[in-house]
Automatic annotation (TrEMBL):
Organism: Streptomyces hygroscopicus
Protein name, entry field: Phage baseplate protein
Highest taxon of source: Bacteria
Region (Disordered): 134-204
Compositionally biased region (Gly residues): 152-186, 195-204
């Protein structure tokens, strides 16, 4: 990670104001890998980007992520902490354990055999998700497009749009300002202490659980771990198969039918981009004779399973057991949106500090940003006392 001091972070935040989800995610990813060009970042598998963003979040705002969810069954507010050390360790382990492709390399095509069908495909990249988002908007509306590009995960789904983010699967996790409805995960302020910038305006000390909060347990990817009495963190991959990503929470703020249609367009676009070759009964099937959507559902389901094994870090899905009613609520933790929301809060608070100190002492912005968070805080306290 390069130089990500206050001035550099403010520049990233300012540039991100002119963008939406995909553009902001790319800016954050470039902060995590400043030596890597944008084209190379877009060509990475989704799981690598997610791992990089979790590592960036830990470096900037500390090890603890305070999140909240609303029970999809009874509406109970649930709050819990996630330890980014566990998440980062599990993501790194998942990336190292990725199965190798047919050519012996981790980036080679993967093969799925189901009945008379043999399909070779490559893992979706960040650029593939952005292309799917554009495809989803071609017929109007942006529900599926927004969630496809902003959220992690593969997004290639089975019948009727099940599994595409924003099409009836787990709702996307927001950042600190997003309380979310039915299943959406939101965050509190950044944990103070060990992050590079998290000590400025973050909530320090132990997080007080409110509203019947669920305490998070382990968070190893792809395995079941206790979270609030029986939840888990898993990796859901929607490259195919009915209910590949659940369907516990409704699409928020949009029409389910429109979202499903957008999801279907995005799914077709992703399959068309990622399928390398198709054979049926040993005979090659030309791409122009096989629309991606016509791959049999069992084949698409197998693609989803293979994608999950190959890139389990692409999705972090929380299964949170409601302490009030016991129902499980599933929600995707969208690290790009979460991290951007934290950065947005931090930047706006920091600019307010700059304004107050510049007014009181006549200092310039660079002079104020050069102060440590502790010294800025003491000067602000002196201003308040005066």
């Amino acid at each position: 990670m390069g130089n990500t001091g206050p001035a550099e972070l403010l520049a990233i935040w300012e540039a991100g104001l002119a963008h939406h989800g995909p553009g902001r995610a790319l800016l954050l990813h470039r902060a995590a890998r400043p030596e890597t060009g944008a084209d190379e970042l877009l060509s990475l598998p989704v799981g690598e980007r997610e791992a990089d963003l979790y590592a960036l979040r830990r470096a900037l705002f500390g090890e603890r992520m305070q999140v909240r969810a609303e029970c999809g069954a009874c509406g109970e507010a649930m709050e819990f902490d996630l330890d980014t050390r566990d998440l980062t360790r599990d993501l790194t382990s998942d990336l190292a354990a990725r199965p190798r492709g047919q050519d012996g390399g981790q980036d080679g095509p993967l093969r799925v055999e189901e009945g008379e069908w043999t399909v070779e495909f490559r893992l979706p990249t960040v650029a593939d998700l952005e292309a799917a988002a554009r495809a989803a908007t071609e017929g109007g509306g942006d529900t599926g497009a927004r969630t496809a590009a902003e959220a992690g995960g593969h997004g290639l789904s089975g019948a009727d749009g099940d599994g595409f983010p924003g099409a009836g699967g787990p709702t996307g996790a927001g950042g600190p300002s997003d309380a979310g409805g039915g299943g959406a995960v939101g965050g509190e302020r950044a944990a103070a202490g060990d992050g590079a910038v998290g000590g400025d305006h973050a909530a320090g000390g132990d997080h007080a659980m409110g509203g019947g909060g669920a305490a998070a347990g382990d968070h190893a990817m792809g395995r079941d771990h206790a979270m609030g009495g029986g939840g888990g963190v898993g990796g859901d991959h929607a490259m195919g198969g009915e209910d590949a990503m659940g369907g516990e929470a409704a699409v928020a703020g949009g029409d389910a039918t429109g979202a499903s249609t957008a999801a279907a367009r995005a799914r077709r676009a992703l399959l068309a981009r990622c399928v390398v070759s198709v054979h049926r009964s040993g005979q090659p099937v030309p791409a122009d004779r096989l629309p991606a959507a016509e791959l049999p559902e069992p084949v698409q389901r197998r693609l989803a399973e293979a994608a999950e094994r190959a890139d389990p870090a692409a999705d972090v899905t929380l299964n949170v057991a409601c302490p009030a009613c016991g129902a499980a609520t599933r929600a995707e933790l969208d690290i790009a949106s979460y991290l951007w929301a934290e950065l947005d809060h931090w930047a706006r608070d920091l600019l307010l500090d700059v304004h107050l100190l510049a007014t009181a002492y006549g200092w310039s912005e660079p002079q104020i940003l050069a102060l440590s968070p502790l010294r800025r805080r003491y000067y602000l306290e002196l201003c308040a006392d005066g």
